[in-house]
Amino acid sequence: MIVPVELSRIAISENSHTHMIWLKEMNGNRSFPILIGVFEALAIERHLRGESFPRPLTHDLLAGVIKGLKASLKRVVVTDIRNSTFFAKLVIQRNSSCYEVDSRPSDAIALATQMKAPIFVEDEVLRAVCTPDGLLGTFDLSMDDMQEKDAENDTEGWQMDDNFGADFDGDEDEDEEYF
Fold first, then answer.
1. What angle do CA 69, 38, 104 make, to 5 degrees?
2. Is residue 49, in this structure, part of any structural domain at all?
3. What gap in Å lies between CA 163 and CA 142, rounded to an integer?
4. How confident is the model at residue 58 (pLDDT cuts 50, 70, 90)?
5. Which terminus of the chain faces fewer neighbouring Cβ atoms within 10 Å, N or C?
6. pLDDT tens digits, 125-137
7. Rounded distance, CA 117 to CA 128, Å?
């Protein structure tokens, strides 16, 4: 059974790679955090504020493709959690056909925020991460856990720093803005 949830909180850290969103059960008191990347965090935040980036991000591109195909994003569903990693699916409808597409929850929620699609979580995922009274269960992430998870996600050597994007065109023009 899928349970409707809402995005109840977003936390964007300026000092680390660790950003979080909280999903809260709409007809209950269970809620839990999901670690997300900086681009997804910024995309969600900007869409909630009604702002957009000067150039399209991946979520904007995907939204354009869905609309261009005369399809709609019916919902996103957080479907599973394994080894403290969440999994999700996009449910896209075109005419009378529905298609499920695997997605990272952060991308799915960024797209749902942009396209105003409902967000759901499988009940067994909620039971795995929350106690019945709404408190975090065994999935309680401390700041140390988040930093460790952040380091694990950096296996390809991708580093974000304060100067990210400063030399895309080879020039170090301080007045250029990339977001």
1. 50
2. yes
3. 28
4. confident
5. N
6. 999 998 766 666 6
7. 24
The interaxial angle of helices 105-115 and 58-68, nearest 10 deg, is: 60
What CATH number is associated with residue 129?
A: 3.10.690.10
Contact 47, 40 (CB under 8 A): no
- Tokens, residue 119: 């967000």
The Cα–Cα gap between 149 and 134 comes to 24
Q: Give the SS3 label for residue 74.
A: strand
| Residue 157 pLDDT > 70 | no
- Domain hosting residue 67, numbered range: 2-133
What total number of domains does the chain contain?
Answer: 1
Please name the amino acid found at residue 38. Answer: V
Cut 0.85: pTM above it:
no
Q: Residues 88-109: pLDDT tens digits?
A: 999 999 999 999 999 999 999 9
3-state secondary structure of 84: coil
Token pair listed for 162? 């304060």
The answer to the question of residue 116 being in a domain is: yes
